[in-house]
Structures are given as C-alpha cells and as structure tokens.
Amino acid sequence: ARETVNVEATYKSALPGIEGPTDMTLTEGYTDAVQTEAYQLTGTPLPQVTIDDDLDGRITWDDTEQKLTVAPGLSQGNYTVILAASNGLSTDATLIFHLTVQGPPAISGDADMILIEGYPGARTNAYDFTGIPVPEISFIASDPKIAWDSQSNEMVIAPGLDQGNYSAVLTAANGLNPDASLTFHLAVQGPPSIGGDRDLTLVQGYPEARTSAYTFTGLPAPEISFSASDPKIAWDSQTNEIVMAPGLDQGYYTATLTASNGLDPDASLTFHLTVKGPPAISGDTALILTQGYRAAKTNAFAFSGIPIPEISFSASDPKLSWDSQTKEIHIASGLRQGNYTATLTAENGLHPDAILIFSLTVKPGSSDGPAAPTDPTDPTDPTDPGDPTDPTDPTDPADPAGSAEPTTPGEFNQTSTSTQPSGTSEERDAPPMSGLIKALIIGGVVVLISAMGFVAIKVHGRKKK
After folding, report:
1. Distance CA 287, CA 4 (A)
2. pLDDT tens-digit profile of 354-405?
3. Within 10 Å of residue 142's Cβ, how many Cβ atoms?
4. Are 81 and 69 in contact (CB under 8 A)?
5. How far, in Å, are 47, 282, 285, 294, 311 from residue 314 at the CA level?
6. Domain boundaries along the sequence of the chain
7. From the CB of residue 313, how many other CB atoms can be counted at a distance below 10 Å?
8. Which CATH number applies to 109-191?
9. What does the alpha-carbon distance between residue 67 and residue 298 come to, in Å, rounded to a whole number?
10. For residue 74, which of 53, 52, 101 has the smallest C-alpha distance?
11. C-alpha to C-alpha distances, 213 to 195, 203, 245, nearest whole angstrom
12. How many CB atoms lie within 10 A of CB 223?
C-alpha cells in the first residue's frame, strides 16, 4: 500500500536587483538590430523587468535572454530608458540605460541676403548645428566686413560694403563624414554706373570706327538703352561698343547710353564724336561798281571746317579790306575804273586749304553822277556802259539812231556844249562826264579821251562870218 508523506517547504524572500550595461553608442544609419549584454537579475522571487519607454517599439526587453534589443532606424540623438525589476516586494530595482545614436553634422539657417548699398549694419538669423558628437564650427568670408558671432551663432555684416556679390562659408565637423557646409550669399544692390569712352575724333572719309567696350555695373544687372544724333552711329550689344559707319560729314555728333535697374538714379553717359574735315568758303565771288561809287561791302562770307579754320586775306589794292567781325570785304570809295582782286584763304591743318578769289570791277562813270553797285548780267542796268556792237545802243557813235547830232546848228549833244568851225582843231575842256579827261575837236569830230580809251562824236558847227 502507498504511504503518503506531507513535506512542508519554506523559503526566505529577497528584494529585487538588476545589474548590466548602462549605455550604448550607435552610428546613425545602422541597419541591423543591436542587443546589449545580458543583465543580472536578483531577488526572491526572481523579478520581472519592464521599461518605461520603448520608443515606439524600437527598444525592447528580451525576457528570455535578459537583454535590451535596439531596432534599426533610430535617428542620431540621445535616448534614455529606465529598466525596472519588480518581484512584488515594496521596492523595485531600477537601472538607467543611455543610448547614443551619433551622426555627421548638419547646419541650417539663412543661405542668402540682399542689402542696398549704404545699408547700416546687418545680421543673419541664428544658425542651428546638429551632430553627435557636437561639431566644431569654422567660418570664412569673401570680405572682412562679414564676420561670425560664435556667441549668437549669427553672421554680422558691417556697414560699408560696395555693391556686389559676396559669400561666406560655415563648416561643421565632428569626425564623422561628411562634414556639413553651408554657403551664404550676400548681394549688395545699388544703382547702375557706366564706364567707357566719352569722346572720339575722326577725319572725314574715315572707314568704320568703334569705341572701346563699355562696362556696366549695378545690381540687379541694368538694362541698357541707346540713342544717337545720326543713324550712322549705332550700338553693338554683343560687344558693348558704339559703332560709327562710314559716311558722316564733318561736324559734331552725340550718342547717349542709359543704364537702369530700378534703383535711382539711372546712369547716363554722353558720347561726343567729332568728324574733322578740311575748310570751305562760300560767299560773293564778284562785284561791279561804277566809278564814283560810295563805300561798299560784300555779303558776309561763310566758313566751315573742323577744327575752326584760320582766315587770311590779301587784296590787290589797300582800299579792299577784311572785316573779321562781320566776315565781309569792305571796298573804300575812290578806286579808279579797273579790275581788282582779293583772296580769302581758310586753313585748319587739314588739306586742302580753302581759297576764294573775289573779283571787283569798277566801270567808268556817267554824267548823272555816282551809281550804285551793278549786276553785269542785267541788260536793263542803266549804269552798264553798253555794247558797241549793239545796233540799238544809244551810246554807239556809229549808230544813226543814237548819234549825237545837235538839234540846232552849232550845238553838241547832251554831253558837250562847245562849238567849233568845221575843219578846225582845238583842245577843249572835257564835257561834264564822269571819267573823261580832255576833248579834241578834229575836223568837226569831237574825240573824248579818257583813261579807258576814246569816243568820237560828230559835231555840226557854224562857219565864221
């Protein structure tokens, strides 16, 4: 028969305890789950382990192996987990576990800024740096007026930068590749300006000519407009040059370049072109006066040429003179009948010189006294001495229609009042005709002698009783 024996066991309880790894470091981008070393649990009864935050299941407790398991995918950062060991007694055992997921650095913050020339001091916003371990920061800039404030993590732009594009580079390094780098771009805007040729001199007959290339500044980049006083002056937007096509006459020309970018004031440059050429003279080339004339003068002469020419004057008689104020030739009274010349010469260093020859004719006078200057081409001019071959010329002694036959015996025509017997010869005072000197009566013919020649006039006289 069976015998039943009752055995009664007793044990002594003990508080829980837990010992093991307290920290771990991983590098961002790890791909496999990672476990800690096994933990040692103590206490009677044997405690159960819980964790306060499993980071959405990424850190878990393996009760079988008594290890922590870290799943892949945690970003760089510092994580803390509290392990609690409990066996029903009043006090649980705890252990703090620190997980570090390190990674390369990163920088975030302003990457560009725009200022207007003449700005006061300026600053960026503060930059943020990440990376485990904490990275070291280095800074370089294209101008010393751009500096780094390590206390505020800001870039500081001192006043005084000219318009232009500037840059600064922040670099963060913590031993993990790659380093972080951020390039900051600063634009200092300003109104436009133009630099280049302002004048050019060419000589008439030149081939095609060009200025040097113009330079334009200004932020934003300016738009260029062009105008010129002649269509032969044009703008080449490919080369930024002003082009002068052949064929411009001598003279002064202008062209204007304007640059605008929305910031006042616009820039403007005026280009002056001088086309030089030899001189020229225009004006009266001939004048006819009648002996006994009053003082006379030509119309004003016109001179052209670049550079402005110098004028010289010479004349065949000192009674012809040059008035440089009015640009007229003055003829003083008193010239005898005859032909005279004066020469105007214009010189400006470019060949040929300009020469104008002025011809003056002083005709014989008439019995009616001085006459005004005449036009030799006018057939109705009463001061014209006439054409001896003209059968209708009233002054032709051979013309019966114009003979000087007296109306009563013993009288001359209107130019003579003396009478003489036929066949006698006697020297008489000249009739009152301007320019005549002496009169000889030879065989009934009056011969009028003057500085220009003689005229024979038939005379009818009475015989002596």
Report:
1. 175
2. 999 999 999 998 645 444 454 444 443 444 444 444 444 434 443 433 333 3
3. 15
4. no
5. 138, 17, 14, 22, 10
6. 15-104, 109-191, 198-277, 283-363, 400-458
7. 15
8. 2.60.40.10
9. 127
10. 101
11. 9, 21, 17
12. 14
| Residues 434-443 pLDDT 10s | 343 444 444 4
Q: Which residues contact 352 (CB under 8 A, 6 or more apart)?
A: 278
Under the phi-then-psi rule, with left for phi > 0, alpha for psi from -120 to 50, and beta for the rest, what region is 10?
Answer: beta
Please tell me whether the overall predicted TM-score, pTM, comes out greater than 0.70 for this model. no
- Residue 146 CA to residue 157 CA, distance in Å, equals 5
Phi–psi pair at 353, nearest 5 degrees = -65, 155
Q: Token pair for residue 11?
A: 């044990």
CATH 2.60.40.10 is right for the domain spanning 283-363:
yes
In 10 A of CB 283, how many CB atoms?
Answer: 16
CA–CA gap between residue 105 and residue 76 (Å, rounded): 10
DSSP letter assigned to residue 401: G
Residue where the block lists tokens 């634009």: 187
CATH number of 198-277: 2.60.40.10
Q: State the burial class of residue 36 (Cβ atoms within 10 Å of its Cβ: 0-12, 13-18, 19+).
A: buried
Residues forming beta bridges with residue 207, ordered by sequence position: none
Which segment of 174-188, 316-330, 407-421 scores lowest on mean pLDDT? 407-421
Angle at 76 between CA 33 and CA 30, to 5 degrees: 30
DSSP 226-292: EEESSTTEEEETTTTEEEE-TTPPSEEEEEEEEEE-SSSSPEEEEEEEEEEEEEEEES--EEEEETT
| pLDDT, tens digit (0-9, with 9 covering 90-100), for 329-352 | 999 999 999 999 999 999 999 999
CATH number for the region 15-104 comes to 2.60.40.10
Place of tokens 């294209």: 142
